[in-house]
Structure formats: structure tokens, C-alpha cells
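SAMPLE LOG
Freezer: B-3
Tube label: C17
Construct: single chain, 346 aa
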Amino acid sequence: MTVAEATPDYEIGTHDDRAFLGHPKGLGFLGFTEACERFSYYSMQTLLVLYMVNYLLLPDRIDKVAGLGWLRAWHYPGLQGQPLSSAIFGDYASLVYLTPILGGIIADKLTGRKVAMIAGGLVMSLGHFLMAFEGAFLLALLCLIVGVGLFKGNIATQVGDLYSPTDLRRAMAFQIFYIFINVSVIIAPLIAGTLGQNVGWHYGFGCAGVVMVLGLAIYLSGSRWLPAELEVGRQAPAKLAGALSYGMPGTIEQTSPAIAHTSLMVSSSPLPAKPVPVAVMAAAITIRTIAAAQRAVRAITLRPLRGSARRSASTTTLSGVAATGSATTSAVAVGAVSPLSEIAAT
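STRUCTURE (predicted):
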């Protein structure tokens, strides 16, 4: 076999297929979207430890963070200051690289890639903006972890799907894609770090959130040039909405009447099921994710209070039992003395 026979033919394609540096237009949209997401992530990575050491975990502010007292007692016993900041950052970074595996599974089995990415972008943006509130620090980190998992695990796969198996441009496409990432790695600390240290910590986090929203807008604007959605992403809205609400308190009607109305119309229509409305389902996932995160933080925050309430109730009960026992003893003693007094009087 000759080299020419072993090498697939180069596919020329249409004008749109070569509109971005000789590559499909979709590569440009995916590249800029990934650049914005990486900018937000590395902005967060640049500021997080310094923010905790120099501001958030100082003695006069650490008690304002909801749930951190319980987390320190359970997971970081005896740590404070720099060691505590490093431990929190280490757990955050490890989970950020672990959750994309789960995000890919969710997209493949439940939502499709576009819905997962939009939901991830919304949750990540929310996490960056929540960093402006000291009490919501743990909730912000949780949103960022979940958002990166849904987003990061589903964008690179779309780059490969822009090309056919015989298209030799695929390898170069990933090199271009990673150039976007490397540029963001360079400029994120310069911009967000400067804002965080010279203007204010919350300005640095806010800058990351704004850029993430910009990346999400770029992704949505280029939807027509992106690869086709997975089959699971084209399920009937009723089926996907039921899967989203499975095992969670409340109903889909309570979460979003518009989603429930759409699901009812599509499921009751004699026509074939319509494709899943990406924005609607992404909003449903975002709402469910935020609600689950809020419940988790609420449970962490209220657990010590519930323990104190139980101890107080137990103490009150024992006091009541003791008081009842004393009253009974006194009554018996009085009852025994009274007949003796009557006999002596007689």
C-alpha cells in the first residue's frame, strides 16, 4: 500500500466549512467560548487563595461564611489561615477536574451537550457573582464546581464532531482550540488579578462572571454552525423534564409553569415530538442545580443548630423529670406526716 492509498483524501467542503482560518465557523465560536470559560476559571484560580488569606478568613470575617464552621470541624479540623486556604483550594481544584467526567455522562445519557453546556455556563456565572457575598462563599464554590463539570466535559467533543473521520484538519483544529485556552491562561491573571488587588476582590470575581456570560452569548450566537445535537438531546421535553424532576422535592410545574405547559402540549399532541428547547431545558437544569446547592448549604448551616436544640431539649426534659420527681417525693412526705400529726393531736 502506498502513502497516497493509506492517506484519506483532503475534504475541501463549502465556504462556511472553511470560513475560519480554513476551518469551519463552528471552531471559531467554540474557541472563543472556551477562551471565555478558561478566563473565568483562571481568574478564580489566581484570586482564590489570596482572597481567603488576606480577606475572607481573617478572624473578624470567617464567622460570616455560612457553613464554614461545620466544614472546619468535619473536614479541616485544627486548620486556620494559610493552611485552611490551601486545603479549600486543593479540594476545589480537584473537584473541578473530577466533575467533567460526570458532566459528560449527564450529557450523553440525559440532556445532550448543548443543554449541559448552557446550564453549566449559567451556573458558573452565578458562582462568580455569588463571590461578591461573603456568606455565600461555599455556595459559590459549589456552583463553580458543578458549572465547570457540565461545561468543560462537553465542549471539546464538539470540536471533533465538526469534521468527518477522513478530514485531516481535525488535529490542527485542536491545536487552534488550545491556543485560545493558552491565551486566556496568560491574560486572566493580568486582568482579573490586577482588578482584585488594586481595585477590590469582588471586582476581580465580577470580571470573571461577566466574561463567562460573554462566552455563553458567543456560544448561543453560533449554534447554527455547531455540530448536531446528540439523539438524547432531541427527546420530547416531557420525558426530559420528568427525568430532571425525578427524586427531587417539588414538581416541574412548581419549578417552571412554562416548562410544564410546553411538556403537556408536546406530550398530548398527535404530531411527532418536537426537539428539546435548549434554553428552556438549560434553565430547568440551572434551577434544579441552584435549589440542590441551596439545600446542601442550608443543611450544613442548620446541622449545628439542630444539635444544640436537641441538647437543649434533652436538658429541659431531664430538668422536668427531676422537678416532677421532687414534687412527688414532697407530696408523699407530706401525706405521711399528716396522719402522724392528727394522731399526736388526738
